[in-house]
Description:
Blueprint: H1 4-8, E1 17-18, E2 31-34, E3 48-52, H2 61-72, E4 78-82, H3 92-101, E5 105-108, H4 114-148, H5 153-164, E6 168-171, E7 177-180, H6 188-202, E8 218-222, E9 230-234, H7 246-283, H8 296-301, E10 311-317, H9 326-347, E11 352-354, E12 361-366, H10 373-387, E13 392-396, H11 406-422, E14 429-431, H12 437-441, H13 446-457, H14 466-480, H15 485-492, H16 496-510, H17 517-535
Parallel strand pairs: 2-3, 3-4, 4-5, 13-14
Antiparallel strand pairs: 1-5, 6-7, 6-9, 8-9, 10-12, 10-13, 11-12
Amino acid sequence: MVSIREILSLERFSNFKLINKNGNIDREVTSVDITETPDVKDYTSEHTILLTTAMNFKDDPKGLIKFIDGINEVPVAALGIKLSRFIHTLDQAVIDHADSLNFPLIEIPDNWKLGQATHSIATYISNDETEKLYYALEVQQRMNSMLIKEFSVERMLNQLSQFLRLPLMLINPFYKVEEVSNHFTNNQKLYKENLRYFNDIYLPEKKDASRDFNSKYAVFEVPAFSYFPYYLVVSNLDSISYPFSHLAIEQAINSLSFAIYKNSRIRATEQEDVNLLFGSIINSSDGSPINLESHPDFFERYHLKDSSYYQVIICGIDSTSDIENSEYVNERYQLTFEWLQSVLVTLDPNISIFGFGDSNKFAILLQDRHEYYQAYCRHLQQEYKKYFKESLSFGIGNEVSEFSQIHTSFLEAQETFDISKDHGEKEFLEIYRPRNFEELLQLLPADKVRPFVISTLGELAFPANTKDKELKKTLQIYMDNQCDITKTSNEIFVHRNTVKYRINKCEEMLRVNVMDPVHSLNIRLALFISQHIQNT
């Protein structure tokens, strides 16, 4: 970056003088132009040095102050005024106002023509940009060479750090340090300072963050993933030497992005083999097509171990109403998988994560007992929302003691998850429990069970008249009281003989003995189902 200070320090511009002592000469300069037009504000580029004779403001210091306000908003880098033509001295009010804005006013010597000054400054800026371009190309060539040689991301970061002579820290999309350059070896103070800057300064102002090469730190997004970038924290930028440029760091970031993405795809491909094995386990009728004891090395490679405790947890990403494109879904799946692995393996290296053909679900296999696993699932739900815009839900199967029973725990977890999801729930944590008869009945459509009710209860299935309704009610209470006439008569407040009469009448209509075990079971089921159908 070329600054006004750098230009004024050159021998050829030694006669150029800063008029106001509070003018900020560290402003960036990218171009130079001549103007004698008062309304040039709308036609001037940022970081331009404007050169003028100020003839329009010969006797108008207030107009010159207004002009300075306008170009400072652009922002223009500085205003160079040739004082020997129309204005020989600047009004003190103009100088004071420029000082209040830290806006530099530069005196162009009488022996310099404005055209000559414009050409000289533009030539210097052009040569500077050429040097920066060559430097950026050299960075690109070095990084590409490392890519071709399949250097690791860690090694590429160190090589780049040596070339730039700057400490570099790579942070993943979950705000955890992925790699650091050798500058951080045995330097915890530098490590903590970089993290503090990233967490306390950069992240809170992420959307508005600027990268000033005159500051000590800068953070650059590394777009290995379009929606979930990595971050490169660069330290000691204030000590960087020419011809370092933004373009040079961009070239390095492009190469780092490719290397990170390539490594992620390699991990994903390797994981697919693990997922296939897990798929064969959960889909096999005997629980496993391969004996665990006979192939311990094989299973260890796939993060499985011999244990007396296994439990499957289904972790799912809650769906949203937002339209999700395939690129986002694929990136979210891969990054969620890596995030789950990083946090769960830290908790217990024997916890394994698997995919099983659903881009929104993962299977977590516990191979050791964890007393507080539910609390940790809640913790995962809270943490996940810091990095992703969706939430997580969990369905938990029962623990099993045999490797061959893993598929049972999986099916329980899957069923538990799907039931809560079908009910429209989100961010849930549900543990499997066996279904009661009423819940099982809800899985059957009414038109499938109605014939059973009618064939069992006949006219009492869905009675229309009062007499049949009383008979059905008496039969229901009689069956609920285990065919005890006394309890039935007390509950419905009628004489015992009335109960006997009604039960005999029911047996005539049904043509069965209600005391018979088989008929009794069918009648109880039919009565329950008829009530359920009637209430839905």
